[in-house]
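Backbone shapes recur. Consider a single case.
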Amino acid sequence: MNIVRSRYTRLLSLCLWLAGTCVAEPPAWFDENGPTPAVQQAIEVLAHADADGLEVRDYGVERLRAMFAALRGDDETLDTERQNHFASELTAAMTRYLNDLHHGRLDPRRLGVNYPRANNEFDTESWLSAAVSENRLPRAIAEVVPAYPQYPALIAELARYRKLIGDPAWRNPLSPLPGGKILPGQSYADLARLGKRLQQLGDLTTETTPPNRYEGALIDGIKSFQERHALPTDGVLGSGTLFQLNVPPEVRVRQIELALERLRWTPSLDDRRHIVVNIPEFTLRAYEFRDGRSRPVLKMRVIVGKVGKTATPLFYTEMRVVEFSPNWNVPPSIAKGETLPRLRRDPGYLQRAGMEFVAADGKVAAEYSSANLDAVERGQLRLRQKPSRGNALGQIKFILPNTDGIYLHHTPTPQLFRRERRDLSHGCVRVEAPVDLASFVLADQPTWTRERIVKAMERGKSSFATLRDPLPVIVTYSSAVYRDRRLYFFPDIYEQDRHLAQALQHHANNVKALSNTRAVKNFMH
């Protein structure tokens, strides 16, 4: 179980046992001897909030330091009124910080991300009071951060990239490429700085001396860099690779900070098996819980919704049903915008595609007629594609309860998975290895062998498998991903990073505007 949740449960149980209800006492920042060590600990924690990708300025650290220094009067005794005011301000800042650290600065739903907001899972005030009274504030804070393995790895990468800001190797862009690209064996004026950048990024060993020409280890370093930045790994130093090499470290720092913010939004899954689809990466991963942590056991390419047209939404849900040999009920938007125009141009497409007309009562009409097409246009009939290898859903559909009608499914066009960029669907997520995914989804139901799954997919008649336990599925968006001991960056295809950065800036402005008022104590999410 998640450490934070288990400790909080024990605290809540103790409160209920003692008093029937639990009202958190304010943190004991002072005792009979004056300020406790927790005061300085708290100020230092806030002063280093940027280590977790947060904004130090959001917590009024300099103001708190000034207030703390002014607590004693000329006779060196504590001013009680100032002490109480300082304690109130420090509690407000720490409460805000802990909330930010635990589940993010923003409510993801306000940005169109349909994640559940579990406001009651973490009682911040009780947690803070207990940590201060037990003199364990730094250790307690370390237990508040998200439990995902990505989180500490991204924290380490954040620190590493911050060190590159202002480094001489990054002060100016690399020189333009003669002829638009540099091939193996050719010379390039900026080979020395190129080698230095690759070394600092971990794509070239620090012992490597850059050659006089573009060759050898330098080419391997470029291939490594290309792989980590969603570029063709051809080893050619072209315009696309040069563009990514010239991205300033502060831009990468921001990408990592945004990835950390999204991890703080992500619902806690404790020890549950789950599936994660990361849209910018065009990748699905399935996770098992082993040896006390989540570990990826399956990875595959996916196709997601088209940029600017049918973008795949971000959400959390729980899969409960798998459909084999599915029918495809053509969505009205697709029917009106694509299928009906095609049928009017080519009536034979109805039979070739295995489509039929279905009434609200389930009655089926397979014959082509203008009247039926018009009825679909009016919403009186719907188009349905029967199960087959050519069905738009392929041979299997993983049903996901959500408000946007999105699901995972197979596809009759697997060749599309060979493309580097795969925003090609109407919004649903097409999976590269459906049998492997079904085997993972139904792994705790031994009767669903791989052979049985394949037979059900090929039967040509719709059938269903109900999961024994609901399986969490997260459709997320992270342009910075740590895996295989390396940091990868991906294009912001839906401009979600840009929108999130703007929202965080607006949030910071609001905090700043409130920082000199009493309202800051109650400023929450």
In short: The chain is about 40% helix and 20% strand. The chain has four domains: 3-145+497-522, 166-247, 269-326+389-494, 328-386. Residues 328-386 form one domain.
